[in-house]
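User: Hi! Is it possible to get a structure for several chains at once, not just one? Here's what I have:
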Amino acid sequence: LLAATALVAYADGAHIALHATSGDYTITVFTAPDPLVAGPVDISVLVQDRATDTVLGDARVTATLSGVGEPLHLDLTHVAASNKLLLAANPVLDAAGSYNLQFQVERPEAPAASFSVTLPVSANHRRRTTLLFSLALPLAAILLFLVNQQVKRKASLRRRLPLS
Amino acid sequence: MQTAVTAAFASWMIPPWATFFLVLTAVIYWRGWREIRRTRPEQFPVWRLFCILGGLFTLWIAIASPLDTLSGMLLVVHMTQHLLLMSVAPPLVALSAPQVPLLRGLPRLWVREGLGPFFSLAPVHALQRLFKSKLFAWVAMNLAFIAWHIPAAYDLALRHPQLHEVEHACFFLTSVLFWWPIIEPWPVVYKGSRWLMLPYLMSADIVNTALSAFLSFSGRVIYPVYADAPRLFGITALNDQIAAGSEMWVLGSTAFLVPIMWITLRMLSRRSERRQAARAFAASLLPQAAPVAPVHRSAGPLRFDLFKLPAAGAFFKSRYGRQLLQAVLLLVAAAVIVDGFFGHRMGSMNLAGIVPWTYARALFVLALLLVGNLFCMSCPFMLPRELGKRVASMLGLARMPWPRALRGKWLSATLLGLFFWAYEALGLWDSPLKTASLLAAYFLTAFAVDSIFRGASFCKYVCPVGQFNFVSSLLSPVSLEARSQATCSSCSTRDCIAGNERQRGCELDLFMPRKSGNLDCTLCMDCVKACPHDNIGLFVQAPARELVQITMHDPQRSSVGRYSRRADLALLALVVVAAAFGSAAVMVVPVASLLTRASDAMPGWLAAMAGLGLAAALPAVLFGLLLAAVWLMRPSQSQQSDWARGEDDASRRAQLCRWTLALLPIGLGMWTAHLSFHLITGWNSIVPALQQAALDLHLRFHIGPGGMPNWAGEHSLLMPDALLQVQLVLLDAGLLFALYVGWRMVRPRASLRPQATAGPTVGQSLVTLAPWATVVLLLYVAGVWVLLEPMQMRGMAGM
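Assistant: Yes, the chains can be modeled jointly so their relative placement is included. Here is the combined structure:
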């Protein structure tokens, strides 16, 4: 049980896709899953004051995702973020390819700034991993059970055989 | 700083698996610790219990607390996690001497029949010897420590969550091995002088010091991930690294130096010399010194009576205990009906769309599998039905017996099938009005049926929800049973079924001395209250015990007979299993689009009829598959004679009934996986739904700030990956239980077999089981496919 607990330890963080400064801002873009694969993705942004590194919770971030298929306009929010320091959006990327992500950062009474990053997106293999895990679990249990039954049968036969 | 810490807490979600396994470990240890303290109180004082709890809590803090949220951005936080995993949790776990308490804490049958055979295997002995080697433990811990701190490996672990989990597992497990010989938890005895522990610890401290010094004095950021990470609290990446190195140096070294001092002091004391001599003597007597599975004096079945629990027992046995539960559910049902008729038109924003379909279904199915048939116990339809019965008895009604031709589960299985069909065809999930109408009709039917017929005819022969619960409760872990058969034999009044002047007897005709299992038992507690000898208990039993029981000997049960002769019961089980997969399948995009396209292409009435046909076809197809499987299986001669010796019905029909009932675990696994999805994704939807209901019904009270529903605040209790894993594990559990029941069906019964015969081999049994197991595996594959498909966005149609 302890071993199993160690193996299911909670995962950390996401991939940092961009860390850059522009205007008054420093932004860090995290993407998940890592590596990015087609399907639902998480794009999260941390906006900080360039001079003091203070996290700017009132910043508004919008983004445009283009390069593969129709351009997608995103409004990043704290609600969508799993880490409430960040602003996030969860678009669904239909296909693999190289996506261009253009950010616009605004704050009340402050000049806006823009950032861009290229996101390489591969084909989806993540579900395959989950599926393999789900198949491996009962398979391992069945194998252990059969070994158990075999050992018990052998022991039972040994007990029944007359001593020679 | 406050923003970051607040955000770390706000973004933290309790990881379900880690928390579940840690709590389970603590419970198992506690059970075993209590047992072992009866015979060895000096060896297991209370501080050992605190050690395991402290160790497990530290482990939880390291891997599952908000620390984890910040560790990707700050090396010093990440290093704290590693220190907890390597220097705090492992010694605490070792100090608790966990082997024997953990074995004693598990059910005895599992240890004896499940783990016992493995203890005799040569590879397991070899592994035990390897893990017990001090050299191996030292090398493993230090190798893991150094290897994972190489920048490339560290970086890789931070970028890949699964690898990061492996890193944490390596740290913890190798550290447990490392701390084992230092603490020597009972009953392990190590050979050799304890003085050897000093170089063992000091050399490990040197490795720790070297790495810490390297981190502190390198003058450059070693791990590129932290160079790129945003800086929090105004700490530069280099300062963060220096702080992490210093922390590792000071605290890590302290963890090694404290046991060095402790061992030195003990070795220098005279008492210690005597103990060392005694230890050496013990080691010479026990050269293997491996932990031995405890020998249990009694191997009787587990008979834990829930009525012995102070609060629960009094509550269930009290006159108004059940009525209180029923009253609560009646109020909930009334609120659902009122909001369904007069509230918001969209199902996902109305109590009638949320309470029955998101919460009640999932919670009651989970309760069935974890506790028992709680729905029937607290059934909201019972209070109006009781009223109807009283009125009818005053008018001289409610005396007719239920028609003989309709006894059995044929009618109720059909009604249950129709209920599942209606759920889809009428779109009950999306129509509060229809849901409310259905609930109201349910109340009226219960009232009408029990006003005319005597006993609990509605529950036993009509109620579709009740039938679902009855058949599912064959897997339930509790059952009402007589405490002593001798007391029942000497009882002349038989109040449990006949009743007395202050309490009626069982309305479902279950006579306690011959009652075995949960079929038709609503846990109403009438028999418990009527019994003048207080001879009825609510006993904990192994899950699916009744299904395993029919594989060995299917007893004649009061009022329900033998399960293997109940074709109607088999049909009911078939409907439940088929509907589990059918109702989940119609929610996923490919099936939903296919059905929508098909129904669009035909007139409305034809589409409805086709849907009804499809609903009937699913159990029929499953029945066809089962029929083919049972025909292919042809039970062996030894199996036939086993059944004959057990006075069981060995006919093909009886076999078909047995094999159909054996499918129940996979069906219930699918139901649980499906319904858990709704519960987990909509777990907090009740708050905005109540706010919405208050708003729509113009109620004067307000819930929450401003009283306005915040629908945007709804979010899943689990991350998508964890949710899918939970669903798949539940389905896996269903598969394994079903296969186990099937296995028991094809294995010979040792008790009935003459000593001279060996019975079929494991391979022969697998071949016999293969046709039926194929049907189970087909269902499993279908279930996995459904769970992997994206869910159709249902409940939005009304927008």
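Confidence is low (pLDDT under 50) at residues 1-14 of chain A. Chain A touches chain B through 58 residues (CB under 8 Å).

User: Great, thank you!
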